[in-house]
Amino acid sequence: MPTDAVFTALADPTRRTVLDTIAARAGITATELAADLPVTRQAVAKHLHVLAAAELVAGERAGRETHWRATPAPLNDAIAWMARVGSAWDDRLAALERSAHGPRRAP
Amino acid sequence: MPTDAVFTALADPTRRTVLDTIAARAGITATELAADLPVTRQAVAKHLHVLAAAELVAGERAGRETHWRATPAPLNDAIAWMARVGSAWDDRLAALERSAHGPRRAP
DNA sequence: ACAAAAGGCAACCAGATGGTTGCGGAAAGG
DNA sequence: CCTTTCCGCAACCATCTGGTTGCCTTTTGT
């Protein structure tokens, strides 16, 4: 199940910061990311691999550097799971679920 | 931040199953939960403590046994975080965020 | 009164995880 | 050409984590 990888990826706070930053600054590199964080570039690289395994980010190598961008799709699965569980006792979340399963943007 | 605890709690698949089951069967006990899982009761008890730390479940002792129920609120924070990050590159998720921040049910 | 059943606490263990340092290779730039 | 810079790979380390077993307390039921 890919949802597994998504929740695993989101569990670490540093990884969430990385994802957050990539979402805000598409095309950023691992070195640039590490500059803003209290960890080394290699640590960031590891986090990027975990996020990539969950298909939350994708990197594209351009010559010497790799540019990372966020890919939204898997977050929907996670939101849908929470909405499904939540809907068992809170039907307001059920509305969220319907929204998450709603019309997809044309690919 | 309590969101931290939520993502941590949701990271483990067994714990998600536990939460799922509690959401479906309110008032269930740890022993009953363990019967349906390939782990011991103590392992389930540990998971329940993690879920309780994230305020996703609450237990009430009734004599010899403890009945567990799910508490929805913290899931909203997690969904809101994902929607916020997602909205940076996908405005369809921004609509979800508005929904999650919308009118709260009266407490 | 006493055995059975539920739960809590503690110790312990193997493996995953987040982090580091060190090195080697490939592209840029002078 | 040579240095710099960016990346990837590998080894290594400490800690966290999910799980177990063992024991003790409390409640229930006969």
Spatial sequence of strands, sheet with the most strands of chain A: 1-2
Considering residues with a beta carbon less than 8 A from a beta carbon on another chain, report the largest interface and each chain's count. A-B, 33 and 34 residues
Number of DSSP helical runs of chain A: 6
How would you characterize the largest beta sheet of chain A? 2 strands, antiparallel
Listing every helix as H and every strand as E from the N terminus to the C terminus, the arrangement of chain A reads HHHHEEHH
Are there runs of chain A of 5+ residues with pLDDT below 50, and where?
92-96, 101-107
| Mean of residue pLDDT values of chain A | 86
Q: How large is the radius of gyration of chain A? A: 16 Å
Measured between the Cα atoms of the first and last residue of chain A, the distance is: 23 Å
CATH architecture of the largest domain in chain A: Orthogonal Bundle
Shape of chain A: elongated
Strand content of chain A: 5-15%
CATH topology of the largest domain in chain A: Arc Repressor Mutant, subunit A
Assign a percent range to the helix content of chain A: 55-70%
Q: Which CATH class of the largest domain in chain A applies here?
A: Mainly Alpha
CATH 4th-level superfamily of the largest domain in chain A: Winged helix-like DNA-binding domain superfamily/Winged helix DNA-binding domain
User: What's the quaternary structure here?
Assistant: homodimer
By DSSP, the count of extended strands of chain A is 2
Structural domain count of chain A: 2
Structural class of chain A: mainly alpha
